[in-house]
Design a protein that fits this description.
It is built from ten helices and no strands. The protein is mainly α and 251 residues long. Helix 7 packs across helix 8.
Amino acid sequence: MIELQIRRRPSAIYVVTYFILWIVLFEFVLPVNNVLPKPSIVIQSFGALWDEYHLAVNYLNTTASVYLSILFAYLLLHFLSHFFDNRKSVVSDFIHSLNWFSKFLPGILIGFLLIYWFHDSLYIEFVFALLTSFFSFVIFFQKRRAHLCHEYVDAARSLGISEISIRRKVIWKSLQPEIFNHIFVLHLYIWSLVIAFEFIYGKFGIGNIFRLALQYRDLSAMFSAFLIVGITIFAGRGVIIFLKKKFAFWE
C-alpha cells in the first residue's frame, strides 16, 4: 500500500501570490473600488501617514506599549515566581479569581474602565498592557507548574539544594521554554488589545490612526497601517524566536 504524503507549501508562496493578485487586480483590472486601494496609492499614502497622521510618534507609542509591557511582565514573573509557586497562598487564590473573571469578561472591558478613570493619563495604555501581560504570564505559570514533572524537584531536594535554588534553577528553568511558547500567543493578543485600546482612547498610537482613517474614510491610509502592523508583528515574532533559541533552547 502506497501512502501519499501531502507536502505543505511554504506560507511565503501564498503571501507572494496574494501580493501579486492585489497588484494585478487592483492596480489594472479594478483600479476604482471600495474594497482595496491601488498599490501605487498605498505607496504614496506612506508620506501622508508620516505627515498628517504622525506615524513616527504613534508607531513608537504602540510598539513601546506592546514590547516593553511583555518584557517587563516577563522580568516581573522571573523575579516574583516564588510567590506564585505555592498554590495554597492568598496570592494564588487572587490570581485564580482573576482567571475566572477572564473566562467571561474580555480584557478590553477593563480597558474601558481605565479610560474612564484615567482619561487624561499618558501612561494608562502601558499600564493596561503591562497588567494584562503579567497576569497572563502568572496564570500560565501556575497552570504549567501544576503539571511539572516532580522527579526533577525531588532529585534536587535529595541533594540538599535549598528551596529558593530549586525554584530558581529547577522549576523556572523547566518552565522557561513553555513560557516562551506562551509569549508567541501573548504577542498577538497584546497587539490586538493595545490597538483596540488606542482606537477607543483616541489620543496616540496606531489604533488612533485607524480611528482617524475610518473617520476620514481614508482606505489607503488604513491599508498602509495594516501593512505596517503586519510587518512589525512578523519582525517581532522573529525576535522572539531568536531569543527563545538563545535563552530557552531546551524542551
